[in-house]
């Protein structure tokens, strides 16, 4: 790897002069400049674009929309793989090992993103940590993005969708979305990916692993991790138990395959990735791939519109003060929430006409 | 109990002539008639009003709003208690036993409601089942309402809030809201009640019981159930273990009390209800009671407004067709969701002016 402040994705060589110049002071690039940078394979443009899309600052929103519009022709052409499992199952290690495997193909570019829900009660754990994927993070043809710290799960998912699109525009052919196996985030990630790989540990019941039945139902492929040394026999037993358990789970589509692997020895990794590839290839042949993307797209449209409608409504000039006054009346018990809502809607109707609130 | 089609809550005697008449064909009462019936203690008016509030039919919504307006002066004057625990912990049996205890006070009236979330993947279990609370359901001064089968959790919670208000208007002084201990529904129910009672089984770790740490954090009081016969010693041990565990859980406010009880022998029931009463009485003295209701009210206002804003937006004449066309373009890959959203917003702005979508 060249010592360079302007790291470029391969295919585009950094001009020697540029690479040797000292780093220029970082300034905000315009959407057009960012789009051009991403098309040219500039890693710093990609990073800056992702920060822009993740930003909740008012002033960044129009720029972010403009940027995504400019890159629309380069989106969609990748395989998006979700990887989940409880903390300790070895997600990062497996992703690093898979990345090594994938990058053997000199035309491959990989992005690793994380969806890390913070529950209202407990803070989520750290995913997509670059320090845990040291080798992969240092590769020119890999882009590892730690999870953004954001509020709602819905928000994280919709931002991640756009980050996926930016990585696709930058030429990434495989997008790995890492999430923690706690149930809620999987539902969100299932709406983002083409194939969902569930990692499980040998020698532990799934109750102990805290994996919900619903998560198993969502899996398109399963890998038993850490199948090496003394653990190898246990892993084989676990594989059979999981296969048996899968018969109990009502599920449409092809039977879910289960492989065993070890990120330490590399054993089984080819097979695990093979399961993912086979699933995707079959889905493309049967039309399930396109159907899944279509379903995800229409759901995304609706979610995006819901968020936008609310945002536009509450952003109306003067509304905040009226809502604050109404809230105060509710808090001191002078109005029921319904009556307070009526007052706000009388001043700020949604569609021009007044209707009494009826929800 | 009189054989009567018009069951009345006590305090108001059913006129003998009315009681002896054959049941009239059920017709839709007007909001004013329903409100008068509820004020007069008519059980059938209450049932009909609850069905109206739970209805998602367009034509019922204005009537429901009108009804709640008419009864606004009678709302809020009750103690609202949430009861949760995993299936098999004995929620129904305990509620029936507590109901028996409460109704010893001849001025008491009790309502039992259920919040039963159906997860997107697995169907929720049946709560508030009248057949499981046979004695209580047959009492004039008790009203047991099985859970409505509805879509989203948010929806269930907002309907349940209004059902609570209707029961209060009908004179119920204690409202018990039953829910299943799966995590998500508790967050919703915590926003509805003044005190949250968690039921736990003896002899099972809380992992085994499937109770999330977050649920324990939300509990205002805990009862170990089925503390009878051989189980009594185990229950006492469990009580100590729970008390120890509570020290680990960061929590504001007074220490959470833990009692043991048996619905079969009646042992400990007085004490369990005593914990609830003490919690509520102390909260009223310290101002926490009012503060909690105020917080719930302002959250409710915001949720209600969110639902209403979206509902009004999507109900606009002509929008459905435009959205369907845009969705079709997304599904066949001709437009990104963001571009499709822009098209819809250009035709149907929220606040009169057009802004490019930026979420």
Features:
359 residues, homodimer, 7 strands, disordered N terminus, seven-stranded parallel β-sheet, alpha/beta, 11% strand
Helix content of chain A: 40-55%
Biggest sheet record of chain A: 7 strands, parallel
End-to-end Cα distance of chain A, whole Å, is 60 Å
Radius of gyration of chain A, in angstroms, nearest whole number: 23 Å
Name the average pLDDT of chain A. 81
Q: Would you list the SSEs of chain A in sequence order as H and E?
A: HHHHEHEHEHEHEHEHEHHHH
Tally of separate helices of chain A: 14
**Largest protein-protein interface:** A-B, 69 and 68 residues
- Strand order within the widest beta sheet of chain A: 3-2-4-1-5-6-7
Extended strand count of chain A: 7
Tell me, briefly, the overall form of chain A: globular
Low-confidence stretches of chain A: 1-21, 118-126, 206-210, 353-359
How large a portion of the residues of chain A is in β-strands, by DSSP E?
Answer: 5-15%
What multimeric state do the chains show? homodimer
Alpha-beta classification of chain A: alpha/beta
């Amino acid at each position: 790897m060249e010592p360079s402040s302007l790291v470029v994705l391969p295919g585009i060589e950094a001009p020697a002069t540029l690479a040797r110049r000292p780093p220029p002071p970082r300034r905000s690039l315009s959407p057009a400049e960012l789009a051009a940078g991403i098309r040219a394979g500039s890693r710093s443009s990609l990073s800056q674009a992702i920060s822009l899309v993740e930003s909740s600052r008012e002033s960044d929103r129009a720029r972010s929309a403009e940027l995504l519009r400019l890159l629309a022709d380069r989106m969609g052409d990748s395989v998006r793989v979700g990887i989940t499992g409880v903390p300790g199952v070895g997600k990062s290690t497996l992703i690093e090992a898979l990345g090594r495997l994938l990058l053997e193909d000199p035309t491959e570019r990989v992005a690793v993103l994380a969806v890390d829900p913070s529950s209202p009660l407990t803070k989520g754990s750290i995913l997509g940590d670059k320090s845990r994927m040291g080798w992969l993070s240092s590769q020119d043809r890999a882009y590892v993005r730690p999870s953004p710290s954001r509020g709602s799960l819905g928000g994280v998912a919709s931002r991640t969708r756009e980050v996926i699109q930016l990585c696709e525009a930058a030429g990434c052919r495989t997008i790995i979305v890492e999430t923690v196996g706690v149930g809620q985030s999987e539902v969100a990630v299932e709406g983002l990916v083409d194939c969902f790989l569930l990692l499980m540990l040998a020698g532990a019941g799934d109750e102990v692993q805290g994996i919900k039945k619903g998560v198993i139902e969502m899996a398109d492929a399963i890998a038993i991790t850490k199948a090496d040394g003394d653990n190898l026999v246990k892993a084989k037993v676990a594989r059979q138990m999981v296969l048996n358990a899968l018969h109990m789970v009502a599920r449409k589509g092809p039977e879910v395959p289960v492989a065993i692997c070890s990120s330490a020895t590399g054993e089984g990794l080819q097979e695990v990735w093979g399961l993912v590839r086979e699933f995707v290839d079959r889905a493309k042949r049967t039309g399930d791939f396109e159907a899944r993307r279509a379903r995800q797209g229409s759901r995304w449209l609706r979610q995006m519109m819901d968020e936008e409608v609310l945002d536009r409504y509450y952003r109306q000039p003067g509304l905040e003060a009226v809502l604050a006054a109404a809230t105060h009346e509710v808090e001191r018990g002078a109005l029921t929430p319904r009556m307070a809502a009526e007052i706000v809607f009388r001043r700020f109707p949604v569609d021009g006409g007044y209707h009494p609130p009826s929800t």
